[in-house]
């Protein structure tokens, strides 16, 4: 991981501390329950540093994108690893078309521009799906909302 500074460094330490607390709590669980707590992360086993770093990158991106909210306590199960970049692209395209924004796809060459920056075919794609208690849009009642993260590990870009 590249060197983190300031708020990102604080966030990374917070997430690492939370992971250690979760490990301590898991020691009191039965072996079956303990193994389940590590198995169901969309990033891979959270016992691995690389998996926790992916989660950190996504949470830091949410914090930077929505500075009025704090996502540092978002659990891993509120993220989903999408089957492929194509499935996420189809979902986004459908939402934009149904929301009356087809010009964003044609005129702006949106996917061409994104591909030039991040090389979509090399990305893992995650979506953030907050539960009702964590949904920051709940009071605003939007027509549609989605949060996809195209993560190119080799380029270190989201």
Strand numbers in spatial order across the main sheet: 1-2-3
Q: Name the assembly state.
A: single chain
* Average pLDDT metric: 81
What Rg, in angstroms, do the CA atoms define?
17 Å
Give the amount of beta strand, in percent. Answer: 5-15%
Counted by DSSP, the helix tally is 6
Shape: elongated
Structural class: mainly alpha
In N-to-C order, the SSE pattern is HHHEHHHEE
Low-pLDDT residue intervals, each spanning 5 or more residues: none
Question: Roughly what percent helix?
Answer: 40-55%
Beginning-to-end CA distance, first to last residue: 14 Å
Q: Based on DSSP secondary structure assignment, what is the total number of beta strands?
A: 3
Biggest beta sheet summary:
3 strands, antiparallel
Task: Describe what you observe in this structure.
The protein has 158 residues and is mainly alpha-helical. It has helices at residues 6-27, 31-39, 49-65, 85-98, 102-106, 110-118, and strands at residues 79-81, 124-128, 148-151. This is RNA polymerase III-inhibiting protein maf1.
Give the arrangement of secondary structure elements.
Blueprint: H1 6-27, H2 31-39, H3 49-65, E1 79-81, H4 85-98, H5 102-106, H6 110-118, E2 124-128, E3 148-151
Helix pairs in contact: 1-3
Protein name: RNA polymerase III-inhibiting protein maf1
In short:
With 158 residues, this protein is mainly α.
Label this structure with key terms.
3-stranded antiparallel sheet, 48% helix, mainly alpha, elongated, 158 residues, 8% strand
């Amino acid at each position: 991981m590249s060197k983190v500074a300031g708020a990102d460094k604080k966030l990374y330490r917070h997430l690492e501390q939370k992971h250690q607390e979760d490990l301590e709590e898991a020691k009191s669980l039965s072996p079956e329950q303990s193994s389940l707590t590590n198995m169901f992360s969309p990033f891979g086993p959270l016992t691995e540093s690389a998996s926790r770093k992916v989660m950190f990158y996504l949470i830091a991106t949410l914090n930077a994108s929505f500075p009025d909210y704090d996502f540092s306590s978002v659990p891993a199960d509120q993220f989903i690893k999408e089957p492929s970049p194509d499935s996420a692209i189809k979902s986004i395209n459908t939402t934009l078309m149904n929301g009356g924004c087809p010009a964003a796809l044609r005129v702006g060459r949106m996917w061409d521009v994104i591909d030039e920056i991040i090389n979509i075919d090399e990305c893992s794609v995650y979506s953030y799906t907050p539960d009702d208690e964590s949904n920051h849009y709940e009071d605003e009642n939007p027509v549609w909302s989605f949060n996809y993260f195209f993560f190119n590990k080799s380029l270190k870009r989201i």
